[in-house]
Batch of 4 targets.
Target 1
Amino acid sequence: MKILIVSSYESQGGAAIAALRLQNSLLKENIDSSLLVQNKRSNRLDVLSDEGLVKKGFNIIRPVLDSIPTRFYKDRELTLFSPSMLPLSGVVDRINQINPDIVHFHWICGGMIKIEDISKITAPIVWTLHDNWAFTGGCHIKATCERHKDSCGACPVLHSSNKNDLSSKVWKRKMKTFSSISSLTIIGLSNWLNNLSKESSLLKDRVHYQLPNPIDCDIYRKIDKNMAKELWGLPQDKKIIVFGAMDIYDTRKGYLQLKEAIGKITTVDVEVVVFGSSRRLDKLDSKVKFHYVGFLYDDISMVTLYNAADVIIVPSLEENLSNVIMEGLACATPVVCFDIGGNSDLIEHKKTGYLAEKLNSDDLARGIDWVLKNDNYNKISTNSRQKVLNEFESSLVAKKYIALYKDLLS
């Protein structure tokens, strides 16, 4: 059995990390698997990409070129919208040349594949959804819009009132292309996203499975908390709150709610560590000290920081199956987040963490205090890791994907 995983990026962003982890998991199970990417960062032989300097350079600017049609909508939201209409990527030709038994899509935007070219792939396609793009007219986060159930148009992300706008045109291209694909199987990482896809006009007639991302629990594991704090130069006598986001001023990451919650917690002797961004939060009224550690590029840094934390906060307003939550739980650190998206697939309320009411900074603060003041903290910590071992451990999840591949090929 020969599997080809397709992802725009090798390790940039949560979807790319998830695809790479699946690749690693399949290799450990002795599956002939490769990862085809548009932008390669490593020297791994099992990660495939264009080798020529000109082609590599063009691949870097493809996301910018693909976004050009959206720029005619001057009042559009500053969130990602992918027309996926850029030709000449050569990706489909490469896929067919490799001739896999299964092509497994993950996140394939950024100009990687023109929508119409998907129908030229000769192998059966499995598609893991990391956001809403596959079943919308181009937006990745549909928010409260329900037009994915119809035919898009009048797109709120584009701030358009035209029923025949870019989103409608992209939807029609997808409908025509998807209708010509005989073997297309959809995987929703979370129950939430799986249900959204099932009710969409584009994918409702396709077979859906719910399978999670895998995580290597030998890497993401519990280590001594005092040692981890010492490695990061954090005080032993303080409770450490960890928060991470690529852009803390992306309102979808919930930094406003986090800022309000930090000002409302009653736990004393608390400090906050922010990773993933070099930008600083606006000055808080509270006296809580903040540490900014910037972007973390390796597993060791992430594992030691998660273990240095007494609680991890994920206040995002949109989440599918959060890598940060899964990684934190695997390191036996409880997580507090809003009860949205796929978060409830990971967090069992008051067992592995705390699910706060969406947008409610008061409840978020209550969740932080509940974890930090809990007399049964060690039990919550043990529950957190056990949840990941039972449901998301690398070998366990890989076997489920292998079983699906075999079922499709039979």
Target 2
Amino acid sequence: MTKHKLSYVQLDVFASRPLEGNQLAVFTDGSSLNSDEMQALARETNLSETTFILPRDPQTEKKEGVKVRIFTTQEELKFAGHPTLGTGWYLAQHRGLDELVLELPIGKVPLSFRRENGALSFGEMTQKDPEFGTVHEPEAVANALGLPLSALDPSLPVQTVSTGMPFAIVPIRSLEVLQNFKLFWPNAESYLKGTDAKFFYLVTRETLARDATLHARMIFYNGEDPATGSAAGCCTGWAVKHGVLPSEQQGIIEQGIEMKRPSRIYIRATRDKDRVINVRIGGSAVMIFTGEAIF
């Protein structure tokens, strides 16, 4: 007997063309689901993340934001970047909005959108101000990654940063090393469990696109991520703090190229004396599927 009939959409996020960027499934009304059912649907989509919109009355949404839950194939996340932008993009398009707020487990995340000829062209989220954590021992990180110490860029620190999800930002010396990198996740996981970081985010200042600031890769238990908006926010804080990106200057992170899903993540933040604030992460998205789940 059918219990649920749910509409969903799938988007490619941090991309302006279909079949690029990071894939996201958005269930447009998950209010009839419990947590186990949401997790099972996330396993079913088998994407890096799946989101569930929990609609409320307009007055509550205006005051508190649109409530959204985010799941990987294995767990619920308090925050993730491309699901936030992608879900916001769907809502902006579906409801005709240029600004909105999502209520996530970490709190409220505001988003704004630009349009060209009436169509959405760019979206940007403001993440929580970065919290700077552990400065890691480079040799220990290199061992966890299966890299020689010489592969790391000695001019920059390996440091945990969080704007809602903690990543250890790892500066790599060259594009060649990063493009050829292969991660054995159990070794990385063993190291990370003893730290304040959940995942590694590897970056290098050598890029393929002339206008890019950093080339990045993020590999975790679910494979490689084509675009990691939460990590990009952490990386933006790190980059502004350590002089890789000037305060308020627009930068671009290129990611997903090695897996043939190129992504462009637009980044900027403000340096206020010893603090980094106002971290903004942006990009485009493309709606690629609409469907219905029946179970």
Target 3
Amino acid sequence: MSVRSPSRRAFLTGIGGVTLALPILESLRQTAYAQDATPHYSVFVRQANGVCQESNGEPEQYWPSALGPITSSSLAAEPDRAVTELADYADRMLLVKGADFAFDSNGCGHSGGGNQCLTAARVSDSPSGAYSLAEGESIDNYIARMHSQNGGEPLTLYTGPRGGYLDEVLSYRGPQDRRSAEDDPWNAYQRMVGGDGPLDRLLEGRRKSVNDLVRAQMKGLLGRSDLSKADRDKLDLHFTSVREFEKMSCYLSEDEEQAMASMLGQGTLNDNRETVAKMHMDLIAIAFACDFARTATLQIGDGNDSTEFTINGERLPSFHMISHRIYGDGDEGDPIVGAIEMHHNIDVLFLRMFRHLLEKLDGYDLLDQSVAVLTNDLSNPTHSFRDIPYVIVGQGDGTLKQGAFVDGGGVTHNKVLNTLITATGLRTASGGPIEDFGDASLDGGMMPEMLA
């Protein structure tokens, strides 16, 4: 029998490397945290280079014109604002401004912002600059290690070039322990469904249930003398549920698989950025629908995202240069005519990609019990760490306010992250909200303006 029991879960390994997550078995594991019985899912999508908020003499083009309630009609009435792209989700959306990163960068704003984005942790002194690291774990890691799905690991995805300079910035297991992200949807998909080779081999494997591929391990586990009757009943129900999940939603269509396989190795190309991001979003939705993972991150673009997006048939300059408003990655360069409007259009494009994720989650009837977040590692084109934007859709466990645009008034963003963690159904051992995520020096608690 091969039952692996790392510190946070147990799972079976079968033919072809197929893995099957097990439910929490009280005979084998105890959790230190209370959890809502209903599964809640969380996904964090990251955009780079800030958004077109009012700053440095530039007009507001991102947020609604007024704080307070938002509706589909109120958003649609302001077509010049980027968030209008999500008007259909207004009644399930929470827009949050007025939350700041607590710490300065260490020689590179992009790296410093990325390091803090999901960690609320300090930025390392060594290494420093573009190679600096976060001194704490990220929210996705915190959530995932409380659950057995996917080995207690978050689903960590990426689309962008790789040059060894400002690649992944988001997901951390702990201090200076950054997690690598998968940039090929096809590779991520094969790991999820147990494939390890060409498409025809994967399709052949689909004719068998995962239960069939781990049957020997299942028998060995059920033969353990230290399992209680309650745990045996739980496993029986789990194996039955796995087979039912496979029938419902755990695979892409063959056409989708063919399209994904054809993109292998091409995710770093400018022209594929949107396509690959949407494929990753498809995987996130399937992973949640099959309970393969409870949380995921998707980083779109590398650390200072120099993608050359094509919008309305026009190939734009580097997004990073657009965010500087000049043909240059530093402080010097000729002005880019129309850079503000270009940046606004890129904001709209990111919201449109995010809408694709919302549509997928909604298609699986998971959006309302999920927390889907679009955020940034900078606030605006001046590369500020003040007023980081959060677009949040879904109520999770009911903690979050919906249909509202709120302002935290300059709170440190660990309070936003505490609120989001609590909205996934996690509680302290005594049943209280999570209020201590992030650097220990920060004032704890949640952000009251976000609460229902």
Target 4
Amino acid sequence: MARSHAHATEFRQVLKLFALFGHPLRTIIFQRLARTPMTAGELARTLPITRTAIVQHLKRMEASHLVEAVADGKMRRYRILSQGLFPLAQWLKRHGAR
């Protein structure tokens, strides 16, 4: 019973990740942050949406432990957290994905 509950919890986390990455701009943001940490303003200069919209996307990603904000003077520089993808990696491993 406990094992099936743990798998169900993990699968819910995987579904949340799929939902997050289902938005094309979040996928682009994640890819850009994978190359180098950036501020919301830096991201906004390279994307067709406002800084405010970028911050909203980053907050959702931060809540899912995909990114973290690190203080850089008065700014917040965002970087990816690889452990946020751990539930997905575990799920893929368990289901034989290569």
